[in-house]
Amino acid sequence: MSAEHTSNRFIILALAVGGFAIGTTEFAAMSLVPEFSQDLGLSKPQAGHVISAYALGVVLGAPILAVLGARFTSRRLLTAFMAVFAAGNVLSALADSYITLLLSRFLAGFPHGAFFGVAALLAASLVPRHKRSQAFAMVLLGLTIATVVGVPLAATIGKWVSWRWVFAFVALLASITATCVWLLAPSNHRTGGSNILAELSALKRVQVWLSLLIGAVGFGGLFAVYTYLASTLIEVTQAQPIAIPIVFACFGIGMTAGNLLAARAGDIALLPTMAGTIVICIISLAIYPLTTGNVWALSAIVILIGAGGGLSTVLQTRLMDVAGEAQTLAAALNHAALNFANALGPWLAGWAIAFGAPLPMTGWVGCALAVCGLLLFFVSVQLEKSHPNTAAALPL
Description:
The protein is mainly alpha-helical. It has two domains: 1-191, Up-down Bundle (Growth Hormone, Chain: A), CATH 1.20.1250.20; 201-396, MFS general substrate transporter like domains (Growth Hormone, Chain: A, Up-down Bundle), CATH 1.20.1250.20. It has helices at residues 3-31, 33-40, 44-68, 74-94, 98-109, 112-125, 132-160, 163-184, 196-200, 206-218, 220-227, 229-237, 243-268, 270-291, 295-307, 311-322, 327-354, 362-386. α4 (74-94) packs antiparallel against α8 and α10 (206-218) packs antiparallel against α18 (362-386). The radius of gyration is 20 Å and the shape is globular.
């Protein structure tokens, strides 16, 4: 094994640690709501605003930082993103009021999408073209492992020590990532467009928008179920309290496996893998309501639903293919789209529940969203076939 190959593996590992930190703070914050709400005297709506502030930071930060960072090297960008992320989590740990926690969570979320976008491009540049999806999957592996290990660990720390130490721990991981990236990453690698206008050219490409819509809509189904999973386990399945973290761990295991398998398959046949992953989402979400009466059957289908998370990996590769010079913006927007899905799915599922639908029906709401994602995929493919010479750069 060459020294360069070893160095590249350590760079990708460092990026995965950053992904683990981001995944832990994003998902664990939901489990820490009771602790920081009680400590700071927040109402339920205020606690919800704190969670939403992070997602808003992701959606706004991804395009802004991608465009403004067009002239900088990947090493500088990733180091800066992790530094801002660390600062946001330090401030979260020190927050003493609703406003300070709200602003610090927004700051922590601001570099989230841009980090994953630039990290995906850097990781892809370190491996042969036919292994791009696998390289990004290794970066995203940190986030998926966080759903299995980081979130339960954070929930335990928050319950028995303090929710503040969770954010402090995440800040430490971010600082380690920033240091390793600065020391190991190549100093001359750039992510794509050389200026702001080159990056903004991504917004003129129909295939970029279609790919983002596939993620924003198709991925919403997964979040429609995930958001109400705990409530379903308690009120419908009537599972024992000890079963709840186990079922959530099943989701994380499925997402980790789906991420790795979709990446390997995507490097062989990208478009069929995208379609297949969405079909898995449709089938598993359709079956979900039929399994909510039994915790074992529910756990099995939750693993399959989590496996649908592999869609994010192949979508990232698809965006690399259709974005032209605007690689950074397109890659970062992928995570903005996924966070939009994180808002869309729960909102539609909540709307259905408000109108009297039982909790298991969140699966069918998610199934409908996944079907829409598949239809958007077919539109994208047909458009590409009808414009074989310009499909990757079709101007609006």
